Structure formats: C-alpha cells, structure tokens
Amino acid sequence: MKSQRAVGGQTMLPVLIAAAVVLLLVLGLGAFGVYAGWIHLGTPSGKAVGGKQVDAVDKNTGESKFICEVTISMPQRTLEAEPKVYNDMLVAGVDFDQKTGWYQGDFAISEGHKGSLKVNGTKILVSRPAMFERFGVMIIQEEFTIDRSDGSFVQTLTFRGDKTRHILKGFCGGLTTAPF
User: Fold this and answer.
1) What is the pLDDT of residues 55-107, one digit of tens each?
2) Rounded to whole angstroms, how far apart are CA atoms 146 and 123?
3) How far from 73 is each of 16, 101, 105, 157, CA to CA, in Å?
4) What does the alpha-carbon distance between residue 5 and residue 11 come to, in Å, rounded to a whole number?
C-alpha cells in the first residue's frame, strides 16, 4: 500500500502543474483581452449612470488622449520607391473645447504645433496646412483621423498636385492615467 501512495503522489504533481499552467494561460488571455479592448469591465458605454446617459463615443467636450499601435509605411527617396514598413506605438490627443489635436510620430502634428479639430459623428479629424518638401515633392497638408467607433487611426499627407499618401495606419484605445 505504501508503494501505491508514493506512485499516486508522484502522478498528482504533473496534474497540478498542468492545471496551474492552464490557469495562468486563461488569466493571461483574459488580461490581454481586456488590454486589447475585446473584454470590457465596468459600466458598459451607453448605460445610465446616476440618471445621466454616458457614452464615451459621443463625448465631445474636454480632452482625450489615445495610445495607438500603428504600421508605418515610410517612402524612401521618392514617393514611387518601395516604402520601409514597420510597426510603432504613438500617443494622440484632442481638446474638444479648444478644437485642436496632435499626435506623436513621423510628420507629427505636435503638441507645440497643433492642428484644427473637426468632429463628424464618431470620426475625429485633425489637420493643418504644411509647406515642406519630402521625397522630392512639396507637402501641403498633414492630417489624421481617429474613428471612435472602431479605434482606427489613419495619418495622411497631401502633396502638391493633390496626391495623397497614408503614412500611418493602425488602431487606438483611450489612454487612462492614474489614478485608475
């Protein structure tokens, strides 16, 4: 009988380890789902809180900041050359009251040189005129859009002759600062 207990105790250890690994995987996937926005915790958007309708998509006052994961398609020497493509993270912000916005990144509409903000439903558009040459062509306007319904981010350059080029594309989520 003693030998059966020892064997039984030894077979229980791999089962416990496997259960712990599965539990950690499930918790990790759940945390990633929350981070990616697939799983929402707390008050659902659009629910009444204290008798007042709350919907972040319709919020058009105050300031909002977004963290965005983007794919950059950077032209090289000319617009027709094969672009260098890579992924990056950036922060974008809008001030609905001041009707301005900015983002960090290549050809940035920076916090120091903000663009003009327009809101059309769930779509935020920030643009500003420009006058500098890149890739052998004069850039006349920079703009970016964030669609709050799906988080899509697109940054566009307009070149002389009405050519446009999307340099950045990706997805954004609201940036929460402490206290959480």
Assistant:
1) 444 578 888 899 999 999 988 888 788 888 999 999 999 999 999 999 987 67
2) 6
3) 48, 22, 12, 12
4) 10
Nearest to 100 by CA among 85, 84, 115: 115
Name residue, tokens 């493509």. 85
Q: Is the pTM of this model over 0.70?
A: no
pLDDT digits (tens, 9 = 90+) for 152-177: 999 998 988 888 888 899 999 876 65
CA-only gyration radius of the chain, Å: 24
CA distance 138 to 154: 20
- 52-174 folds as Porin (2.40.160)
CA distance 117 to 105: 18
